[in-house]
Amino acid sequence: MKNAVAVVLGGGRGTRLQPLTKYRSKPAVPLAGKYRLIDIPLSNCINSGLNRIYVLTQFLSVSLHRHIRGTYRFDNFSGGFVEILAAQQTDSPHGTDWYQGTADAVRKNLRYMTQPGIDYVVILSGDQLYRMDLRAMLDTHIRCGADATIATKPVHADDASAMGVMKVDHDGRVLGFVEKPKTPEAIDPVRMDPAWIDARGVASGGRDCLANMGIYVFNAKVLQELLADESHQDFGHQVFPHAIGTRNVHIHLFDGYWEDIGTIGSFYESNLELSRP
To answer: Which of 4, 89, 187, 271 could form a disulfide with 120 if both were Cys (CB 3.0 to 4.6 A apart)?
Structure first.
């Protein structure tokens, strides 16, 4: 993992988590009594041997910055770091803007991710609860010769309306991508045969949609090229729907516990589940 860096998107406003986000950003919200949401992606990175990590921050970030500075320290010999990249004004024509989306946040900090010796960029959301070995995802990316790889989780169509949903070919290459389909007509073109999921060692249980988990691996050079179009401000809405026609985009199938903590209800349920044996 020496030739890879991680980027955690920690700038979310978290309006649906009010009042928990009245004075702090979404990734700074406490979890399970002693952690913060940001600890989940950072822990997954470190336990996967990925110890060069950038955290992109924006809204109400003081509490988040304090937590990161006080928690994550590496010895002088490992070369590891967790570095905060806060939204800032620069001399570029668009440098005075806030981050306009997930892709725009990465674009404005590309110079840190495209330095010599960096071949792969792993991008993670800062507000999800899961445990994943990111080395396995990077292995999938390299084995498939992919330009970009998206972590996906099988879900039922009824649960897919709040997620990006993908259609893939026999080998796992993405053929279609629909962001947050709201109607059956929008979902139908990207439905999968559950037998395809079963054949990959994951029990589908009738689930026929592959949902975007918000975890990506890019070849560093490809990421730079895809973000050259400044009209593409979000990975789900613009970057991936455009990339699947011109790039080799694959999926990494995952079926462990994963929860997008986007509402008070999901936050409450996640805390209860963490208390169970």
So the answer is: 4
Domain covering 1-131+260-277, topology: Spore Coat Polysaccharide Biosynthesis Protein SpsA; Chain A (3.90.550)
**pLDDT class of 94 with cuts at 50, 70, 90:** low
- β-pairing, 81-86 vs 52-57, is parallel
- Local structure of 167: helix, strand or coil: strand
Residue 92 reports pLDDT greater than 80: no
Whether the CB-CB separation of 24 and 64 falls below 8 Å is answered with: yes
Q: Tell me 224's DSSP state.
A: H
Between CA 219 and CA 247 the distance in angstroms is 11
Q: List pLDDT tens digits, range 154-171.
A: 999 988 888 889 999 999
Distances (CA, A) of 6 to 49, 62, 82, 92, 212: 11, 22, 9, 24, 18
Mean pLDDT of 62-91: 85
CATH of 139-256, one of 3.30.450.20, 3.90.550.10, 1.20.120.1730, 3.10.50.40: 3.90.550.10
3-class DSSP assignment, residue 259? strand
Give residue 209's pLDDT: 94
Q: What single-letter DSSP state applies at residue 173?
A: B
95 pLDDT more than 70: no
Q: Return d(Cα 269, Cα 277) in angstroms, integer.
A: 15
- Asked if 90 and 63 count as a contact pair (C-beta separation under 8 A), the reply is no
DSSP 84-142: EEE----SSTTTTSPP-SHHHHHHTTHHHHSSTT--EEEEEESSEEE---HHHHHHHHH
Q: Are 136 and 189 in contact (CB under 8 A)?
A: no
Rounded to an integer, what distance in angstroms lies between the CA atom of residue 56 and that of residue 8? 6
